[in-house]
Amino acid sequence: MGExxxxxxxxxSDPEAPYLVETLSPKEVAELESAxxxxxxxSIEALKAxxxxxxxxxxxxxxxQVLEFGxxxxxxxxxxxxxxxxxxxxxxxxxxxIESRLHEVVQAVQALSADEDDAQKYIRYxxxxxxxxxxxxxxxxxxxxxxxxxxxxxxxxxxxxxPDRFVxxxxxxxxxxxxxxxxxxxxxxxFEVVDGWSTDERWGGYLRVxxxxxxxxxLYTRDTLDEDAFFKSYSLDxxxxxxxxxxxxxxxxxxxxxxxxxxxxxxxxxxxxxxxTTRWLTVVDGxxxxxxxxxxxxWNIVSTDVD
Length: 307
Description:
Layout: E1 9-13, H1 26-57, E2 65-66, E3 79-80, H2 95-112, H3 116-126, H4 133-146, E4 168-169, E5 175-176, H5 180-185, E6 191-199, E7 202-209, E8 218-222, H6 227-233, E9 243-247, E10 254-259, E11 262-271, E12 275-284, E13 287-291, E14 299-303
Antiparallel strand pairs: 1-14, 2-3, 4-5, 6-7, 7-10, 8-9, 10-11, 11-12, 12-13
């Protein structure tokens, strides 16, 4: 839906904007959710195997352990202090008993994972002793994995904010792009919508400058077309018509039309030859121009604060 901007904005050229907005079908969403749940199950199984291997290798007493966690929250094999590496390993239950307990902890944590307080109480009260710290860590890691939320991929398109894409004032008074050097010498040109409207995928109105540079002026289109010029060139897009400038009066209203991930900017035009018609904003040699032929340029807006 077309939403009228409520803040000032800059206009940028966005020629690489894709036309299609990427989305997922219900089937694709279900497949991603299933893969997410499988990933959690696989992570828990890997954690159980890692923990069991630590037990088999003889984990030193907890007071000598330095517990480490990997970048994904996985529990690494604990390191012992160098001076205690020769200490005898602890005696542990047989592997089947340990495996059974590992499974019981997973089931208990999964059952309580919806309530953070209940899960934490279970972990604290089930493994209260210092020599059970490794079990507490195991249960906490299981809790972390179980509570990993499924998130849809973010397909939102972000336009490039390269300085040469911003619409600025050229030295000849027209508006243009590809002026990275001039951007350093002048503040960003910002607009606000006056007498605005919005409907469906469109919004528009008069564009008034809100930044300190040319503040209060309006976007204006220079029109010098006459019938003789048209019949000589067979085009409404003669060299002197359609260039975009700024003026102290309201100029002409423009319409921002949402097309996928970008806008096309249109303007109504009253031709003495064809009557009312529509033209669109493009770029000619770095200068902004409304034309009736060729393809519209791609544009986007960037919300800004008023100077």
